[in-house]
Amino acid sequence: MSTRLRNKEEKIQQIINKLIEESASGTPVIVEGKKDEHALRELGVNGKILTVKTSGKSFLEIAAEIETLSIAQVILLLDFDRRGREGTRRLKDHLEHARIKVDLRFWNDLHSFVGKEMCCVESLTSYLDTLQKKLL
């Protein structure tokens, strides 16, 4: 059993547990699509999850829509690929311009642990399953 893999699995699980807590406290999580939402639901995130790609709207329109919800803070958790990074930056800029606090801690933390091995939030559940199988 690899100590490095065990530590990685524990750190990822801690990040997910914090995400579950933050979401349960009322902070919406913004993801790209329905598959990302489904993956977070499988991991236990039960709070509000908003998807940005399924609506067919621009990031500016999405930011304006979120602003109408009177939300003070959101968690951005788009994918880790080039398009996800660009979308995160653009959406963050639009939301902050609308005076909505953007929490990137979960994105940054997950990216630091899985960024090279996984590019999509939707594959987080299978990534964790594979990691846990390697630990057996």
Detailed description of the structure:
The chain has 136 residues and is an alpha/beta fold. It has a single domain (3-130), classed as Dna Topoisomerase Vi A Subunit, Chain: A, domain 2. The chain has six helices and four strands. The protein has helices at 3-24, 34-42, 59-68, 82-97, 105-114, 124-135; strands at 29-31, 49-51, 73-76, 101-103. The chain has a four-stranded parallel beta sheet with strand order 2-1-3-4.
List keywords for this structure.
6 helices; 10% strand; alpha/beta; four-stranded parallel beta sheet; 136 residues; Dna Topoisomerase Vi A Subunit, Chain: A, domain 2; elongated
Task: Write a short abstract of this structure.
The chain is of the alpha/beta class. The chain has six helices and four strands.
**Unreliable sequence segments:** none
User: Would you tell me the structural class of the helices and strands?
Assistant: alpha/beta
Say what oligomer this is.
Answer: single chain
SSE pattern, N- to C-terminal = HEHEHEHEHH
Q: What is the CATH class?
A: Alpha Beta
Number of helices: 6
Distance between the termini: 7 Å
Q: How do the helices and strands line up, and which of them pair or pack?
A:
Elements: H1 3-24, E1 29-31, H2 34-42, E2 49-51, H3 59-68, E3 73-76, H4 82-97, E4 101-103, H5 105-114, H6 124-135
Parallel strand pairs: 1-2, 1-3, 3-4
Helix pairs in contact: 1-5, 1-6, 3-4
